[in-house]
């Protein structure tokens, strides 16, 4: 079989996942096209703003597609073909399910943020913990998504990266406090054009210039720098397969969707689209370089994925086309970083019941958030990314447990959420047990035992305690 067929099969798997498994997930949840959505019944002109399904889909895609589906797959390509499998399987059975429920449960809960979604289904204590956890993660995301694009723009122009840091922070601040349809609703569709050019243009150039897809592919797992594929590959490739950050973003669009029947297209579909982006960058990482050793050499000792993005883009599309492609990559984190800070503002506002219609009320929350964000920007990027990686996948697991509990409480087929929740819990727990710098530094064998045990205990708690809980009416909370 020609090596390029692996890409075709992987792409077909993602599309089939949307058409078949996405329809199953939708049927299990049971959207009601006659139920008024938050945007229709409680518009405020700031965050609850009704928009067309196409526009909401584009905004959702750009909200969730940060550096993850580019940097993560490039680094994940070091592990070999398992990266391809995880993008497809993880996206269809975990990531898209996670995104669908985080969006549709927010719709059912009047546009509430992820801490409230989790609290309604897993208890008040978890809700309080999640409020702190979610805000910390969102600030980390916002800061991480300043440093990455600033570095790329610095490489592209030769100007100092701190200049771009200041410009990006200024844009983030405006996008955080202005009504959702003033900047985000107007410019994101144009950004989407750059995104499509970046992905399709680079893949087409790879084929046109005669590169061999997946050159020297070996169906074995690699361990770059001695790091095990399990669980590292599932932490590294986050946004391209499954990402808890998306649970903080979906409620933003849950406040703008005008009919529940569009949920699969907007939430499940946007994750599949991001999976395609991740698939393209895994392919570029495994095909542009002769083998994983060459890719590792290009990344350098610090894993500089931004440098690889720039090299691939310029080599395949020339200086001008490469510059446009790099700008397309810059768009991804910038359009997620701004909504990260916006989601942090809304999460805090929901927690304290602070009306966000007055300008001064938005400023009262946004200003302290950005003071913290600017201060964190001086912490080394590598350290921030490690903390983000663990927190991101841990949040994905928690959101999936909340979705499983929601279904279990209503006597529905909870396995579509509980199985990926168990898997992502094991991934997060094994990682934090094994990680030497920020974790507990346990041996690999003990980390696996402890992590898998934690996942099974969570699963048992869901099945025993979850059946005793009576569901609350979705519209009463």
From TrEMBL:
GO terms for biological process: cellular response to starvation. Its main location: membrane. One of its GO terms (cellular component) is plasma membrane. It is a multi-pass membrane protein. This is CstA N-terminal domain-containing protein. The chain crosses the membrane at residues 78-101, 132-153, 159-180, 187-208, 228-245, 266-289, 316-335, 363-384, 390-408, 415-434, 446-465. Belongs to the peptide transporter carbon starvation (CstA) (TC 2.A.114) family. It comes from Bilophila wadsworthia (strain 3_1_6). Keywords: Cell membrane, Membrane, Transmembrane, Transmembrane helix. It is found in: Cell membrane. PANTHER family: CARBON STARVATION, INNER MEMBRANE PEPTIDE TRANSPORTER.
């Amino acid at each position: 079989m020609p090596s390029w067929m692996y890409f075709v099969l992987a792409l077909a798997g993602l599309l089939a996942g949307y058409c078949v498994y996405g329809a199953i997930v939708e049927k299990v949840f049971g959207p009601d096209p006659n139920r008024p959505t938050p945007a229709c019944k409680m518009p405020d002109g700031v965050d609850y703003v009704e928009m067309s399904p196409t526009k909401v889909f584009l905004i959702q895609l750009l909200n969730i597609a940060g550096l993850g589906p580019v940097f993560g797959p490039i680094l994940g390509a070091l592990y070999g073909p398992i990266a391809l499998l995880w993008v497809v399987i993880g996206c269809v059975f975990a990531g898209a399910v996670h995104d669908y429920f985080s969006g549709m449960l927010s719709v059912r809960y009047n546009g509430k943020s992820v801490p409230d979604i989790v609290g309604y289904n897993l208890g008040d204590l978890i809700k309080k913990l999640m409020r702190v956890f979610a805000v910390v993660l969102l600030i980390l995301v916002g800061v991480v998504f300043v440093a990455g694009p600033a570095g790329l723009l610095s490489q592209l122009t030769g100007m100092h990266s701190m200049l771009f840091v200041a410009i990006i922070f200024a844009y983030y601040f405006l996008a955080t406090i202005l009504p959702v349809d003033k900047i985000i609703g107007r410019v994101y569709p144009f950004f989407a054009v750059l995104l499509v050019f970046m992905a399709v243009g680079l893949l087409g150039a790879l084929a046109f210039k005669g590169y061999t897809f997946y050159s020297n592919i070996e169906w074995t797992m690699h361990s770059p720098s001695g790091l095990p594929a399990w669980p590292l590959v599932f932490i590294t490739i986050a946004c391209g397969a499954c990402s808890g950050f998306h649970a903080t973003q979906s409620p933003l669009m849950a406040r703008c969707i005008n009919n529940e029947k569009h949920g699969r297209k907007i939430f499940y579909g946007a994750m599949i689209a991001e999976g395609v982006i991740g698939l393209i960058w895994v392919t570029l990482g495994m095909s542009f370089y002769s083998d994983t050793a060459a890719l590792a050499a290009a990344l350098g000792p610090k894993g500089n994925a931004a440098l690889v993005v720039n090299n691939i883009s310029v080599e395949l599309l020339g200086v001008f086309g490469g510059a446009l492609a790099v700008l397309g990559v810059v768009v991804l984190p910038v359009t997620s970083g701004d909504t990260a800070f916006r989601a942090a503002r809304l999460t805090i506002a929901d927690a304290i019941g602070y009306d966000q219609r007055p300008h001064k009320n938005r400023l009262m929350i946004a200003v302290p958030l950005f003071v913290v964000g600017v201060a964190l920007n001086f912490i080394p990027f590598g350290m921030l990314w490690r903390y983000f990686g663990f927190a991101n996948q841990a949040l994905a697991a928690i959101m999936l447990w909340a979705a499983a509990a929601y279904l279990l409480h209503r006597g529905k087929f909870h396995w579509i959420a509980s199985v990926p929740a168990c898997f992502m819990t094991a991934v997060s727990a094994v990682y934090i047990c094994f990680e030497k710098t920020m974790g507990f530094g346990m041996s690999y064998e003990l980390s696996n035992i402890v992590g898998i045990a934690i996942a099974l205990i969570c699963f048992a708690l869901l099945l025993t305690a979850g059946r005793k809980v009576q569901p609350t009416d979705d519209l009463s909370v």
